[in-house]
Design brief:
209 residues, mainly alpha, Arc Repressor Mutant, subunit A, Tetracycline Repressor, domain 2, 2 domains, 10 helices, 77% helix, 0% strand, elongated, DNA-binding transcription factor activity, Homeodomain-like_sf
């Protein structure tokens, strides 16, 4: 049994309640940050959204930037943890990249508000925490670039700077949060993820003359 499981099972009712309250606050803050922007949102508005007093929010997050940091960190963790098995698998580079793209689109569109906030508001943070988040995000890009570089070595992808292609592909996936609306009909998230993977692989495939 892992330490994480033991900690969860051994948590007191108070600890469970605290964790639940933090999640509620993060959900409400994410909604408001996505709708009206980080700068235009204050702790009192978050409290009103939840039906709490401001002091209740302040108890868990003494400053607004702590909320922003935590929700962006959680978004990054969701992406990294979901993609880790793909990076660890011994797959041909084109298949691995297709799986990475499918996963990326599905993750960001499962939590679109969270990722919109990450993309739009990261620059509102400063100091060590901002640097750590940026390092983590670029670390993911570098891992995608490593897959592309492996595909170039194997003759699957045309030669070019791998990190540039990785940034283009990640940017394509991220941009779906700005325009995709499941309520308008059209493609499902799975269908969109499949199309994004096809575009990425087709665009990189090497076709010698």
């Amino acid at each position: 049994m892992s330490d994480r499981v033991r900690l969860t099972q051994g948590a007191s009712p108070v600890e469970h309640k605290d964790a639940g309250r933090r999640r509620e606050i993060l959900r409400a803050a994410t909604k408001l940050f996505a709708e009206q922007g980080y700068r235009e949102t204050n702790l009192n508005q978050i409290a009103v959204e939840l039906g709490f007093r401001r002091q209740a929010v302040y108890h868990y997050f003494p400053a607004k930037d702590e909320i922003l940091y935590e929700l962006i960190a959680q978004a990054g963790e969701a992406m990294l943890s979901s993609s880790q098995p793909i990076f660890d698998a011994d797959l041909p580079a084109d298949r691995a990249l297709a799986e990475i793209v499918r996963n990326h689109v599905k993750v960001v569109l499962t939590q679109p508000d969270t990722f919109r906030v990450q993309f739009r508001e990261l620059d509102k943070l400063s100091g060590d925490r901002a640097e750590a988040l940026q390092k983590g995000m670029f670390g993911y890009v570098q891992r995608v670039a490593a897959v592309i570089e492996a595909g170039q070595r194997d003759g699957l992808f045309f030669p070019a700077r791998p990190v540039t292609h990785a940034l283009l592909i990640v940017g394509m996936c991220n941009s779906t949060t700005e325009w995709y609306d499941p309520d308008r009909g059209g493609d499902s998230i799975d269908e969109l993820a499949e199309q994004a993977a096809h575009i990425a692989i087709s665009g990189l495939h090497f076709h010698p003359k």
